[in-house]
Amino acid sequence: MGIFGIFNSKKKESLDQGLAKTKESVFTKISRAIIGKTKVDDEVLDNLEEILISSDVGVETTLKIIERIEKRVSADKYMGTSELNGILKEEIASLLEENNSNDIADFDLPESNEPYVIMVVGVNGVGKTTTIGKLAWHFKAAGKKVVLGAADTFRAAAIDQLQIWADRVQVPLVKQVMGADPASVAYDTLSSAKAQGADVVIIDTAGRLHNKVNLMNELSKIKSVMKKVVPTAPHEVLLVLDGSTGQNAFEQAKQFTKATEVSALALTKLDGTAKGGVVIGISDQFKIPVKYIGIGEKMEDLQIFRRREFVESLFS
């Protein structure tokens, strides 16, 4: 299967458009850095380091990439700047591969008699509700029966927003009143999903970070209550991060990975920013696979993250 075997041209076009600002920023800077240079020397590498850091790849990850390039340059004394792009592409793709070993086909789920439970975490304003709505749409389009659970009972707006998405996608939403016990909502959601023979359950949770201990306790409680209904739940803890916040997204990832076991990441709002490099840095630093990326407003603009296509889009 070729590089775009499971990736049609329409999706590739959306990806290219969604990453256009980052690509333009990185690309223009790299072109400037190597103008008039015939070989990759220390000055080129220093400039490259600066460019990657300013694209929010993060210092540690940038140093790893530069080190890999240095190794290749010293092995091949005659490497010219014209090959730099290709090498960058290869090294970043292989770095991403270490944390995203399996590129999954579209919205596949493991075979099971029980619903597949996704618990969604993240601070308010990162696009959490929108991501849940779009995920529900994708799973439904893939022929799956979806149930949503509104366990962010801290804000009335969170329940209302989720209801709007549930109506839009035409999937059932299990909810209680604002201030209700989030674990009790999760329990009801799973019980209802099981009774309906649902394939996927997506549970929203409160996005407060100001008191990590409370957050930790709340998420642990939601998890343990879910297990009473589906012993293997949650199958996925998905952390949603706003890619346009760059270094702030790193900080949120740090806090949430301390508060709960995060197993997958979704990076949203990449279309409005030149900080797309954050995907590379976060994937590398937290050793958690990036599973979804948000590159626009449309339903299909939430895409499965495929490292090769991502790197291809950035550096081609």
Automatic annotation (TrEMBL):
SMART domains: AAA, SRP54, SRP54_N. This is Signal recognition particle receptor FtsY. Involved in targeting and insertion of nascent membrane proteins into the cytoplasmic membrane. Acts as a receptor for the complex formed by the signal recognition particle (SRP) and the ribosome-nascent chain (RNC). GO terms for biological process: SRP-dependent cotranslational protein targeting to membrane. It comes from the Bacteria. CDD domains: FtsY. It is an enzyme of class 3 (hydrolase). GO terms for molecular function: GTP binding; GTPase activity; signal recognition particle binding. InterPro entries: AAA+_ATPase (IPR003593), P-loop_NTPase (IPR027417), Signal_recog_particl_SRP54_hlx (IPR013822), SR_rcpt_FtsY (IPR004390), SRP/SRP_N (IPR036225), SRP54_GTPase_dom (IPR000897), SRP54_N_sf (IPR042101). It catalyses: GTP + H2O = GDP + phosphate + H(+). Its EC number is 3.6.5.4. It is found in: Cell membrane; Cytoplasm. The lineage of its organism: Bacteria, Pseudomonadati, Bacteroidota, Bacteroidia, Marinilabiliales. Belongs to the GTP-binding SRP family. FtsY subfamily. Part of the signal recognition particle protein translocation system, which is composed of SRP and FtsY. One of its GO terms (cellular component) is plasma membrane. It is a peripheral membrane protein. Keywords: Cell membrane, Cytoplasm, GTP-binding, Hydrolase, Membrane, Nucleotide-binding, Receptor. HAMAP family: FtsY. GTP binds at residues 122-129, 204-208, 268-271. Residues 289-302 form the SRP54-type proteins GTP-binding domain. Pfam families: SRP54 (PF00448), SRP54_N (PF02881).
